[in-house]
Amino acid sequence: MTHKSKLLDRRQFLATSVSAATLLASPAILQAKKSDTIKIGMPTILSGVVSILGESSRAGAQLMIDEFNKNGGLNGRPLELITRDSRAKPEEAVKAVRDLVNGEGCKIIIDAEASSGSFAVQEAIRELGVLCLHTVSEATPLSADPKLRVPTAFRSARQGIHDAIGGGAYAAAISREKGLKRWATCSPDYAYGRTTTAEFMEFAKHFNGDIEVIGQVWPKLFQPDFTEVVTKLLQLKPDAMYSALWGGDLVSFVDQSNLYALFGQMEAFAVNLGDYPVLTAVENLPDGIRSGSRYNKKIPDTPENSDFYDRYVEKNKVLPTNWSWENATAMSFIIEALKDVGSADNPLKLAESIKGRKIKSPFGVDGTLTMRSEDNTLVGYAVGYGITTKKEPFMKDFQTTAWDQIFELETKWKKRKGYL
Amino acid sequence: MKITQQEGKRKSLNEALITIAALLILLALPSLTGSQKIMDFVIFAAAYGVLATALNLLIGYTGLISFGHAMFFASGAYSFGALMQSETTSVPIAIVLTLIITATIAAVIGAICVRLSEIYFAFLTLAFQMFFHSVLLSWVEVTGGDNGLLGGIPTPVFFGINLAQAGTKYAFCVSLAILSIYLLRRIVTSHFGYTLRMIRDNERRAIFLGVNVFLTKLICFTLSAVFASIGGIILALFISGAYPDFAFWTTSGEAIFMVMLGGVNNFLGPLVGAILLTGLNDLVVHYTNHFGLFLGSIILLFALVLKKGILDFLDPVLENLLNKKIKTPNDTSEVENSDA
Question: What value of ipTM does the predicted structure carry?
Answer without folding.
Answer: 0.78
